[in-house]
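We emphasize that the prediction below concerns an isolated chain of 195 residues; any contacts that depend on oligomerization or on bound cofactors are therefore not represented. The input was used exactly as deposited, without trimming of termini.
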Amino acid sequence: MCIKHMVPLTLCSLSLSITAAIAQDIPSNVQAMKSAYAASGSIIVLDARTLLIEPKMPAPLCAIPKQEAGQTTWLYYAFPLASITLPLADIDETLIGQDQVFTNPDAAKTYKPGDQGDTTLIIVASVRGKQFHTLLYDREKLIALGPGPHSGAEYGEAPDDTEAFALAFSDRAAARAFAAALRNAVLLAKAQAAR
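Result of the prediction step, given as a token string:
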């Protein structure tokens, strides 16, 4: 076989092996995300590039200390997400970030400046013009219901769309592993979509 015919054949083989590696890499990154998120919720694969994330409910009440005029004030919020449908190619990988928050109810009483939060939030934002489909619920209604199976209507579950959300992790290493695997999966999904 002459060199002239071997080059296209080699390039074709290389292209097929890269495509196979990318296709295999998304599932391995998703598996890493599932493992890292297991203590916080579950991840279901809807298709090769779309995930359904179901955080454990109720969402933790997050507190962030803020210094104002020499005094510490607190901001409180929760992310009451029953589920998030997550097309990987719709995520802006440059905006995947993290924040430390406090979920201990006594944090405001025991806090000293410089203390680190007990929970890591991984913040995920969409690319411009896209939104994630979510199911939200009323956190207070859910807590008032107590244990046992309840229908979504009982705790005010309703669809909503959002450009950003946060996932809570009590383990910082798991949060970092999740963020790294998510970023890799997003890049691979975008590379596949660009073909």
